[in-house]
Amino acid sequence: MFRASCTLLLLLGHPQEKFDDFQKRVRAEGTKVAIDDRVIYEGPWKTADVSVRLFKPFKDLVPEGFVPWYQVILTIDGEERLRLPVPSLKKLIAFPPVRHDELRPSLKKLTETVEGKKTFVVLVSTEKAEFEIYRGPVAETRVERKVDSFVVFMNGEVLYRVARTAKPSARPEDVLEAVNAYREQAGVGKVKVTPALSRGCDLHALYLTKNDARGLSGHDEDPKGVGFTEEGAKAGKRSVITPFASYETPREGLESLMATLYHRVAVLHPQLTEVGIGWAFRKDGNGHLVMDVGSLDPKEAKGWPVCWPPPGQKDVPLEFGLGSRETPNPLPDGTASAGYPITIQYPEGARPRIRDPKAQLTADGQELACWISTPEDPARADWPQAGVTALIPKEKLKPGTTCVVKLRDRLGGEDRMWAFTTVKQ
Predict the structure, then answer these.
(1) Which 3 state secondary structure label does DSSP give 233?
(2) What per-residue confidence (pLDDT) applies to 215?
(3) What is the predicted pLDDT for the residue at 356?
(4) Under a CB-based contact definition with an 8 Å cutoff, are residues 238 and 155 in contact?
(5) pLDDT block averages, 10 residues each, the chain of length 425
(6) 102: exposed, middle or buried (Cβ count in 10 Å: 0-12, 13-18, 19+)
(7) β 48-54/38-42 pair status
(8) Do the Cβ atoms of 402 and 364 come closer than 8 Å?
(9) DSSP state of 141
(10) 313 with 185: CB under 8 angstroms?
């Protein structure tokens, strides 16, 4: 785990203890950087630096009564990602938007007059609210919009900057490494990536970025659609597919996919031997990951049954889909959220000795209410799950708890029991 170094610039006329206190409020762990428990960045990084400076847009004559704002600056791996203007460093800081995809393509400027004195106000907005990023004397303001950044300048100085997470290198091996890490944890063999399969995945991912669904599933292509190819259409039908946000990477899209039911079992299938991996980005920075999982070797019989989360696993996520929905959706209609699913999969052709497996999930000794989905009684009648039994907690799992799964073995008729621990927050 990398930890951020927090560099706080000493500003003349401002007590050092103010910045020492601010430094204690910065946290950088895993993939997140937070201040006062407000996450200001989430994504891959090796080094993260947080600094504070005063915003001084008036180089010559400072207007009377002008109180400079602070700027909190986040630098990721040597590149500035955020520059957030705030009027005060006191808890809790009211930060403007920190994600590129939250911003509308407009900036609002107002002039307020109070007791004959004019005050210039600059705001940025999202779908839900407007946020003040400057209040003071009138100044020249302009906006620079790029595919990966939104920057506001005042008198030539950067007032506010929000940039997207750096895109990963276009190497299927980056995702393959994560896939094989999951498979190794599950006790099944590694897979290899095949360039020919990956080409089809790239083509289908590109198709998805250029077309609306038009009533089709994400696995289908309309021959009249932009970018349709026979190769891409074939890959779409053989693949698991997941979207990922502009501030995420394809590997994080895979993490979300592994927190589902139907898509996970395809990734962990013991007979899977080779995969294709591809992704593409839309103009707004969001993307689609497409992974061909259709190459199964029926002679491969090692690894059954496959339990996930596996016995002894630590830092297990808390929520189904990591907050995203799965298509098709195994959750009952109207369900807003659910806990991280537990699955156990057997060979599809195996004939169990029992038809009604008992299943139970406890957390720190307390039984949790779950939906149970089996081959005989699947969550969706229109989506069979041969060989797969799943427990889906009806509520998000609690952090830092030990969960125990107790499940009747479908083949042996005996109870199978294992434990895992959820992530600490």
Answers:
(1) helix
(2) 59
(3) 54
(4) no
(5) 39 51 83 87 82 84 77 91 92 86 79 80 86 91 85 94 69 88 96 95 94 76 93 97 82 93 96 95 86 93 92 95 92 93 86 63 95 91 90 96 87 81 87
(6) middle
(7) unpaired
(8) yes
(9) E
(10) yes
Q: Looking at residue 405, what DSSP letter applies?
A: E
Q: Determine the pLDDT at residue 169.
A: 55
Ramachandran class of 26: left when φ > 0, alpha when ψ lies in -120 to 50, beta otherwise: beta
The answer to whether 9 and 52 have CB atoms below 8 angstroms apart is yes
Candidates 249, 240, 397; CA nearest to 313 is 397
Name the phi and psi angles at 330, rounded to 5: -80, -5
Rounded CA gap, 306 and 183, in Å?
10
* DSSP strand pairing (5-6 vs 48-54): parallel
CA atoms within 13 Å, Cβ hemisphere of 229 = 16
- 234: which DSSP letter? H
298's CB contacts (< 8 A; 6+ apart) are: 271
Orientation angle between helical segments 230-237 and 195-210, nearest 10 degrees? 100
